[in-house]
Amino acid sequence: MLCRLALLIFLASPARACDIALLLAVDVSGSVDPEEYAIQMEGLAAALQNSEVAEALVVSRARIALMQWTGTSRQVISLDWVQITDYADIAPLADTILTMPRAWRDYSTAIGEAMLLAVTAFDAVPDCKRRVIDISGDGPSNEGTPPEILRTAMARSGITVNALVIEASLPGLTDYFRRNVITGPGAFAVTANSYADYPREITRKLLREVGRPVTEAGCDHVIANCDHATRF
């Protein structure tokens, strides 16, 4: 009850700033077939409308953008920054993602190039306290700038890179992402054993990324839902 009161006070504040700029970076490389692309977009759309995720987005006044990425020179911001200030902002965002055309097919995997584009994308949201890249992938980088050489510079710039790793055909891929891709304060990687697991794991991942630990009124859960949110 006290934690819920802290949340309501936070929501009522007129001076709330953007807490997090979250860039969703979706793998559309050649290893991702049309059904798997659809699973990613449907999973993202559903996750954003999950009640706890939605609450966390509103509380954080989050800004959300979406990138599609594949091989070298094939990365694009398919959805520019959308600010979430009210629950009514979430359904249109989810609908846009759900119906988004695929940008490319049949190209390589250039994770480092996706990370580089993300850095410039954050220039448009300088008022957000946290800058997070949420990158999904089902294979190691095999083209372009190696992601591992970017990690230190990105962390120093205050950018966190988290990963959702789809180990459909490459067991142990999560370890590769942990060693070479994720970086920054509290960075983490989660595993989907197959594309079928993606919707569940992206929901859990968004809760972990957007929910902020708070201490108001003695609450040590995430501010998104002090009554029953998952501890991290």
Structure explained in plain terms:
- The chain has helices at residues 2-12, 34-49, 51-60, 90-98, 111-121, 151-156, 173-180, 198-210, and strands spanning 20-27, 63-69, 75-83, 130-137, 159-166, 189-192.
- A six-stranded mixed sheet has the order 3-2-1-4-5-6, with helices on both faces.
- The protein is built from eight helices and six strands; from the N terminus they run H-E-H-H-E-E-H-H-E-H-E-H-E-H.
- The chain is globular, with a radius of gyration of 17 Å.
- With 232 residues, it is an alpha/beta fold.
Descriptive keywords:
6 strands, 19% strand, alpha/beta, six-stranded mixed sheet, disordered C terminus, 232 residues, globular
Q: In brief, what are we looking at here?
A:
With 232 residues, this protein is of the alpha/beta class. It is built from 8 helices and 6 strands, in the order αβααββααβαβαβα.
Order of helices and strands: HEHHEEHHEHEHEH
Helix content: 25-40%
Strand line-up across the major sheet? 3-2-1-4-5-6
Strand content: 15-25%
Instruction: Tally the beta strands.
Output: 6
End-to-end distance, in Å?
20 Å
Total helices: the number is 8
Question: Whole-number average pLDDT?
Answer: 85
Radius of gyration: 17 Å
Low-confidence stretches: 1-15, 213-232
Approximate shape: globular
Largest sheet: 6 strands, mixed
Helix-strand makeup class: alpha/beta
Give the helix/strand layout:
Elements: H1 2-12, E1 20-27, H2 34-49, H3 51-60, E2 63-69, E3 75-83, H4 90-98, H5 111-121, E4 130-137, H6 151-156, E5 159-166, H7 173-180, E6 189-192, H8 198-210
Parallel strand pairs: 1-2, 1-4, 4-5, 5-6
Antiparallel strand pairs: 2-3
